[in-house]
Amino acid sequence: MISFQNVTVRYPLGNIALDSVSFDIEDGEFVYLVGPSGAGKTSILRLLLNDIHLSEGSITVDDFEITSQKFKKVTELRQKIGIVFQDFKILPESNIYENIALSMLVKGFDKSQITKEIDDALRLTDIEDKKYLFPAQLSAGELQRVAIARAVVGDRSIILADEPTGNLDPKTTWEIMKIFKQLEKKKTIIFATHNTDIVNSMKRRVIVIKKGKLIKDKKKGGYEL
Amino acid sequence: MNDIVNSLRRTPYQTFAALSVLFFTLLLSGLLFISLTFLQGLLNYVETRPRVIVYFQVKAEDEQIQAVQKNIKNTNKTSEIKYVSKEEAFEIYKEFTENDPLLLEMTSAEILPASLEIDATKPEYLPELAEMLKNQPGVDEVQFQKDIIDNLLKLTSKVRKTTAIFFSYLMFMSIIVLTTTLSFKIALKREEIGILKLLGATNMYIRKPFIGESIFLGALATAFANIILIGTLISMNTFLQGYFDGIPNLTISLAGMPLQVWPFNLTFAIATLTVTSIFSLCITLISSFSATNRYL
């Protein structure tokens, strides 16, 4: 369960990134976080990772309650969350297996568990044959599959996807969306995008953010620019 | 281990610089440690052999010497008294001047003084015994080890101070070089560290490879330094045997345990290795923690 209660993020120079935003997300829910660039979508994701600090309000992620800048359990919180970035953030000097394994190594999984889960994740993302290749040998779509595989392994119950299809062509975008569809119900997914086609095709919950304010929160909604 | 070796191979110049500095630091530290232990061992040896040597006038009678010997023995502050006659003194003189026949020709047993070598039970009895001997009839000169001990103490104190300053400087220099080298490597891996942090890696998990790498470098430098140090000691064995002729062994107390410094032995080699390893570990841990701190 994720809960935002009157969350405000104010930067030191006074500009407001989020203004009293409140919403709840149930376990296993798939939520689109939409809005124009600079609306505050990434700020919400970064708040969930405790990568930026809130100025007012409170955030609850399962047992963790973030109310101030002095939140101590950052590592434990982040170990519950898988992240998929627009620019993949795959380590170029490690092969695909090693990149995905990072997500489990930081949580102290043993080698047999790592190998098994990575094989499952590679099957899910359909890149089983790329296991020992290096990132330079993969296309953008394949790299994003690696990023998704890294986000799902290691018993991470929440997946945050920040514009994961932003760098991909339409065909690859739909292939990536198919993977996210398979993850539905198993993981809580917050998918930040401004791609209206994706949002409107899947008819899932949509939270619209504009200029730091929550302006719409609709079950099975759509989105228009 | 493979990761460490790969990481070092990717930055050969930085690795060489760090390894060189660590090697020289540990080599010099080891040399200082050995010098200090030998000096301390020598001091301990001299302190445990409190001795007064009293030289009699050339014309002193045997009865006079025996009377002095008796008086001194009666003080109960001596452990051993050895009489060296004029003839024995001449034999000793001959040994010393065997390479200089001219000196030997000019000397005879008659012009050499008889003497008593008196070992005290405690070093603090030496001044008292010396003072007493000076007032005995037939006594020409009294020598005791106060001067030697004072000089050794002064030397040991100076070497200790110099060592402390030198150690601190070497440690500081090594930490700076190693921290800079590691910082450079960490800067190259900034993106990787960022990803690891977002994945929930603990600070220790992120630090571990850098700590492992610097400890590996430290271990390598310690091994090289100790090979040179122990090799030097072994090759100098004959020279040192001549230098410490007559001294059966030199022993110091290290961390409350007796450690035999001379003759050179395996325990002393292990002690040198342990001291340099601890020094190396301190340098590498401080460096890797200070280098990673900036990015965590």
Automatic annotation (TrEMBL), chain A:
This is Cell division ATP-binding protein FtsE. It comes from Candidatus Roizmanbacteria bacterium CG_4_9_14_0_2_um_filter_39_13. Belongs to the ABC transporter superfamily. Keywords: ATP-binding, Cell cycle, Cell division, Nucleotide-binding. One of its GO terms (biological process) is cell division. Pfam families: ABC_tran. InterPro entries: AAA+_ATPase, ABC_transporter-like_ATP-bd, ABC_transporter-like_CS, ABC_transpr_LolD-like, P-loop_NTPase. Residues 2-225 form the ABC transporter domain. One of its GO terms (molecular function) is ATP binding. One of its GO terms (cellular component) is plasma membrane.
From TrEMBL, chain B:
Pfam families: FtsX, FtsX_ECD. This is Cell division protein FtsX. The keyword Transmembrane applies. Signal peptide: none annotated. GO terms for cellular component: plasma membrane. Residues 165-295 form the ABC3 transporter permease C-terminal domain. Belongs to the ABC-4 integral membrane protein family. FtsX subfamily. One of its GO terms (biological process) is cell division. Its main location: membrane. PANTHER family: CELL DIVISION PROTEIN FTSX (PTHR47755). Residues 52-142 form the FtsX extracellular domain. InterPro entries: ABC3_permease_C (IPR003838), FtsX (IPR004513), FtsX_ECD (IPR040690). Keywords: Cell cycle, Cell division, Cell membrane, Membrane, Transmembrane, Transmembrane helix. It is found in: Cell membrane. It is a multi-pass membrane protein. Gene3D superfamilies: 3.30.70.3040. The keyword Transmembrane applies. The chain crosses the membrane at residues 16-39, 164-188, 215-244, 264-286.
